[in-house]
Specification:
631 residues; alpha+beta; 12-stranded mixed β-sheet; 4-stranded antiparallel β-sheet; 20 strands; elongated
Length: 631
């Protein structure tokens, strides 16, 4: 309802404000008289002690409408002692003016420059300041008033409030005691230090503070009297508040409903539309050979329903293994060379890969491809998705499925934000509706976020695709644990054969590491290592490791000679020493190639060149709030 905050304003510069102006309240009293129709006549007396620079004016505000639990104020008067101020807009000493700003009515009054102790008296009538109850036990009509708001800028040394009820009306008593339904609150909590006296048979209630009120604490008073003693119509603000409460409860129920059903609906959506078909197929623990002739990139895309960089790299190794391209390791780069083999049998994604890799040239170094290949990745990925759909392994492109659900989730989140903002704007005066709107918006936002997350897992396989994936998973298990199922000493011939599959499944590190330990493992015929000696294994000059990230620096020749220590003999060993002598170079080629193929210019925001390969009172809240001040 009414909030009174005295703010100090200086005619002097703002920098001297805190140094030259000081004040506090010696006394802050309010007398309230209830009329038969529910209006309240208020007389407020504030005695202040000013020191420092002179003060010349003051202001206060009264919150009206639903926010202030009243229907506005009338009959405003201001005086100091025997001097009555006149209403005018001249800002001259001895005048006051009233302005309306939003839900607050401001009263400004002006006086001669002054310091010391002064008392200002305000009187006004509050329209519809009583909350009307019912005849139910424990209910009743009540006055609940914030006498001093919590934002007063100085201490209040003493304060006394009186509430006078009409003839024949007395404060309501508890049913089981003789105590009256009256209370005082400080800082929102009931304050037993406030002395409350109920006189004149319950008609006059006095609240006397025993201690000063400090900055940041509010002072509220409350009294309830039986409903029906006065013919007080329910004020419009209370009707609006009750309607808002009902609407808030309804909206809150919607929010809770959405918060429960939204995530549950996302789960049901995934369960019914995102899971692979259930099949009755018995597959052994492992398969030592590929179950069909599908390319590594297609299988890699099918298994995890994503055409990632491992699948793209497997295209390179598969083309090399099949004789379409050779790879030569040079001192500080790798060279890719096109062979004379006819390309008419290549799949669309393989042709696109070769065009992106070599362009119109017959050979190209890795350095020459920097920043040039990444622009072709979307096309190659799209063609891989088209291939798995064409083979009836997936019903539609998994990327389009993910994008569809990402868009749906984003739309739900936008709807949540829009509904929240919209209801906050519409119900700006109702905290209950504002909180309910936040609940609805939050529920929609959560549902949208979960939809986006679930959308990543919504692509699903066909029955054929599921059966194919199950078989290939058995083959993947074989690649992971080959030493468990086969004698590596006699299985070295499969190293090159299955290397593209190992790359597609992200097993290239362990695959190379297992076979490099066997001296008889032949080097791939399509790969020519650089002819200088290096340490075998994951360490050595290449900076590799057996686990973790595979980011490695460009190799450095260990000595001043191009071939490094050992001369021609070392060069010979580098070429003829089997896989163990060139495994680091092969691994480095995979790392550097993957990094280069996805690299984009520094100014680009997409892609990137980093990374490796892999009881008592009933109802109501207090009126009050607002502000006021001096200057």
């Amino acid at each position: 309802m009414i909030g009174v905050l005295l703010l100090l304003m200086l005619l002097a510069p703002a920098t001297s404000f805190a140094q030259s102006k000081v004040f506090f309240w010696r006394q802050w009293d309010i007398d309230m008289t209830l009329r038969e129709n529910g209006d309240l006549d208020v007389v407020e007396r504030q005695t202040l002690d000013f020191s420092g620079e002179p003060f010349t004016y003051g202001f206060r505000s009264i919150v009206t409408g639903t926010a202030g639990n009243n229907e506005g104020i009338t009959n405003v008067k201001v005086r100091e002692g025997d001097r009555n101020y006149t209403e005018a807009s001249t800002n001259a000493p001895g005048t006051f003016k009233i302005t309306q700003e939003g839900s607050e009515t401001f009263i400004y009054w002006y006086f001669e420059p002054t310091v010391g102790e002064h008392t200002y008296t305000f009187s006004y009538t509050i329209k519809g300041g009583v909350r009307v109850g019912t005849l139910d036990e424990g209910s009743g009509d009540q006055i609940y008033w914030t006498v001093i708001p919590n934002d007063h800028p100085a201490r209040v040394q003493a304060s006394r409030v009186t509430i006078r009820l009409p003839e024949g009306v007395a404060a309501q008593q508890y049913t089981d005691t003789t105590d009256y339904l009256v209370a005082a609150y400080t800082g929102g909590a009931e304050d037993s230090t406030v002395v409350i006296d109920v006189g004149e048979n319950g008609r006059l209630i006095t609240y006397e503070r025993a201690f000063p009120l400090l900055v940041g604490d509010s002072f509220d008073v409350r009294v309830q009297f039986p409903h029906g003693l006065l013919d007080i119509p329910k004020p419009d603000w209370q009707s609006r508040e009750e309607r808002s409460s009902v609407a808030g409860t309804f909206i809150l129920a919607i929010g809770v409903f959405l918060a429960v059903t939204g995530p549950l609906g996302v789960l049901v959506m995934w369960y019914t539309r995102g899971r692979d078909p259930q099949i009755d197929l018995i597959v052994p623990e492992y398969l030592s050979e590929p179950p069909d002739q599908l390319s590594p990139a297609v299988i890699g895309t099918l298994v995890d329903e994503k055409a990632d960089m491992s699948d793209i790299m497997s295209i390179l190794l598969d083309l090399a293994r099949r004789g379409y391209v050779t790879i030569t390791e040079e001192e500080r780069t790798h060279r890719f060379t096109r062979t004379e083999k006819e390309q008419k049998d290549l799949r669309p994604f393989e042709k696109s890969f070769l065009r992106a890799l070599l362009g119109t040239k017959d050979e190209r170094t890795l350095k020459e491809m920097n920043y040039k290949f990444a622009q072709h990745l979307p096309t190659i990925r799209k063609q891989l998705y088209e291939e798995v759909v064409k083979l009836k392994l997936l019903p539609k492109s998994p990327e389009s499925v993910r994008m569809t659900y990402a868009g749906l989730g984003a739309g739900i989140m936008v709807l949540g934000v829009a509904s929240c903002i919209g209801m906050f704007v519409i119900f700006t005066d109702s905290e209950a509706l504002g909180g309910a709107a936040l609940c609805v918006g939050g529920a929609l936002g959560l549902t949208g976020l979960l939809t986006v997350i679930a959308g990543r897992h919504m692509p699903k396989k066909t029955v054929l695709g599921t059966e194919t994936a199950v078989k290939w998973n058995a083959f993947i298990n074989y690649l992971k644990n080959i030493e468990k199922y086969s004698d590596l000493q006699t299985a070295t011939d499969i190293f090159e054969k299955y290397l593209p599959y190992a790359v597609a499944f992200g097993l290239e590190r362990t695959w190379i590491h297992k076979f490099e330990q066997i001296p008889t493992t032949p080097t791939p015929g399509w790969y020519t290592p650089y002819p200088y000696p290096r340490r075998s294994g994951w360490g050595g000059w290449w900076g590799g490791s057996s686990s973790g990230s595979s980011r490695s620096s460009t190799p450095t020749v260990p000595s001043g000679e191009k071939g490094g220590p050992g001369g021609l003999e070392g060069m010979s060993k580098g070429v003829t020493g089997g896989l163990s002598s060139m495994s680091a170079g092969l691994t480095q080629m995979l790392n550097n190639t993957a990094t280069t193929l996805k690299s984009t210019p520094p100014s680009s925001s997409s892609g990137g060149s980093s990374g490796g390969f892999s009881g008592g009172f009933s109802g109501g809240s207090s009126g009050g709030g607002g502000s006021a001040g001096f200057g």
